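Re: duplicated header lines in exported structure tokens

Our pipeline writes sequence and tokens for each protein into one text file. With two proteins the header for the second block appears twice in some exports. Here is an export where it did not happen, for reference. First protein block:
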Amino acid sequence: MEIVLDKISNTEALIKVSLKQDDYQPKVEEKIKEYSKKANIKGFRQGKVPRSLINKMYGKSILVDEVNHMLSHKVMDYIKENDIQILGEPLPNVEKAAEIDWDSQSEFDFEYSIGMANDFEVKLDNKVKIENFKIKVDDKVINETIDNLRKQFGTMTNPETSEEGDILYGELVTDDEDENKTAELDLTQVDKKQLKNFIGKKKDDTIEFDTAKTLKDESYRESFSGSKDSANIKFLVKNINRKVSAEVNQDLFDKTFGKDAVKSEEEFKKKIKEVVGKNYDQESENYLNYKIQDEFVEKTKMELPDNFLKRFIEISNKETISKEDIEKDYEHYANDLKWSLIKNKISKDNEIKIAHEDVILEAKNMIRQQFAASGFPADQLEGSLDSFVDNYLKGEDGNNYMKLHEKVYNDKVLEFIKSSITIKDKEVTPEEFNKKS
């Protein structure tokens, strides 16, 4: 057997394999011998079928199977032994393989296309500077959060006359009264210029309006009237619903954080600041991770085998992805691949390793958080924690373990990157953060 690498470019190559009869014939003979022992053919006792008959009946399929089996192993062994960093998987030259005459040939030539990333360097030092937006939890944020909680835990009332912010329950009046459709009209969705037509209304009042002028949000307009198109409709008010915000008292404290977790408005605000702050910190962390990825993908000079990768994606997903989809999404796919290669290089160059204990610890922390969120007492969990972890990591045929292993790996590499570059914190308001992110 002869295997050679024929480089087409820095990122693409052909692996050429030449097989002679001596390479595969021993395995073929061995398989024919096995068949002759196990075959159940009329007129012959089991184990006494002549090898010549087995060869005539099954020889070609055995030959094809053994050659393909040998090829797949030898090609991958060649790639490993020569430390070729391939992307995707080797793609066989199907046209060339189709020309083989398995009945008469004894020597075979095969080709496999492979894609590789070119050699690249990752600049990882304190000269790399990234801004980290820290969202500040000011009085405005705290007060807005309290207002939302008051609305969330408020009570529903049915006043006689409508006001701004109410929800009108009623019917869309049609010519055939039997087919009137019930609907709820949320006055917060009504255009400000049209709102006056909906204020001061009472039960059994009829309001006529143009849906396109009144309800600017197309999706809400469609859910309300059944169509995004403009239409003049009549709406018969049957009831007025108004949510009255809850008072800021112990009942609201208990509903928000659990019984007696906080006992004063001052503690309530402090707890809100703490919880909102943690949520904002997570948002900031996620965005910082995204910016780090974007920075390194953009600044790292790397060449990918684009044509090969597009072919690989098409062949691997021929039932679900079109060429048009591949072209449209390829840049995103390529950037994800570049980031994966960058992480792998950083990990290899700096000997970042993940131990089994790291995955166990991550699983324990995850399960603790899940139980804490459901209000389960922490002291009751610890005695059964190892059992929960074991069951989780074995779940999904081991995929849960692999997912957590990948998360721990990503976290470790990102932490190493953050310790090596310059990160400058900048305090921003939630509005400023939303604009930037």
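Second protein block, exported in the same file:
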Amino acid sequence: PVKSEFGPWMLKALRVLRRGKLLRGTPFDPFGWSTERRAERRAIRDYAKLMAEIMAGLTPATAETAIALARLPLRVRGFGHVKAAAAARAAEEQASLLAQFRAGGPAPMAQAAE
């Protein structure tokens, strides 16, 4: 990514954009259909489905794994390629944790030989 520099005319453009707040979340939102925004909305829907599954299968044995799954979105931060990379890492970890959850909790630790 390359930083761009803009002149004083940009302040006028930003004032116009400020009035566009009324369009947020509507079909007329000019920024709402970007790939990143669509991915964010999809992630919200997927998270709601995941939480419904977790609540349906929550037991004392799966509680720790459920909490780890619920906290995963907190790791997805940033913008652009930084956010995409964080989302990819979170998706990998989610797959692993979800397999543990569906198996009934974390894998038991191997006992040390006496």
